[in-house]
Design goal:
6 helices, single chain, 5-stranded mixed sheet, 25% helix, 26% strand, alpha/beta, 3-stranded antiparallel sheet, 167 residues
């Protein structure tokens, strides 16, 4: 299966879209910020898809869909519902958006990891139902379910409701 970052690069390179809305690392590896990418090089260097890509990108399409050209967006199941609502309210121009559906097993909250007494994290990886947390003190593991964002822990539907392409 092609990854999210690789799909973003492909969509820009083959000129399916003019820009991609995704996530960029902030000050820390878990501090991801929604961002617009206009070149494959920028995606290659700065685009991040991880268990911390929890921010809903749909709302960024309100402005982006009116800029001309076409924008790609990656929609998790929960994002798809807000995307559909924004379409119903005519706040997004559908013909200017290329929606890529991304299956999601839930996104994590660094505060919930810290609440388990894990500090000094330098990286987090998914390992099946667990998280491998690399810290300055060594490696820790915990159940991913114990680190989920509240909205993910209470998610009622994992169904992608709208997309142009599914990953």
């Amino acid at each position: 299966m092609q990854g999210v970052k690789e799909k973003a690069i492909q969509l820009l390179k083959d000129q399916t879209v003019d820009r991609v809305i995704g996530w960029r690392a902030g000050e820390f590896f878990y501090d991801l910020t929604p961002s617009t990418f206009t070149s494959a090089e920028d995606v290659e260097q700065n685009f991040v898809w991880s268990v911390f890509s929890g921010a809903n990108l749909s709302k960024y399409l309100i402005a982006e869909s009116r800029k001309g050209g076409k924008a790609a967006v990656f929609l998790k199941p929960c994002d798809g519902y807000s995307f559909v609502q924004l379409l119903k309210e005519h706040r997004i121009l559908r013909e200017t958006v290329y929606a890529v559906g991304v299956q999601c097993g839930g996104m994590c909250d660094m505060e919930r990891i810290r609440a388990r007494g894990i500090s000094g994290a330098t990286a987090v990886e998914e390992a099946g139902e667990d998280l491998r947390i690399f810290t300055i003190y060594g490696e820790e593991t915990m159940k991913k379910a114990d680190a989920l964002l509240l909205k993910c822990a209470t998610c009622k539907s994992k169904k992608l409701v709208i997309f142009d392409e599914l990953l």
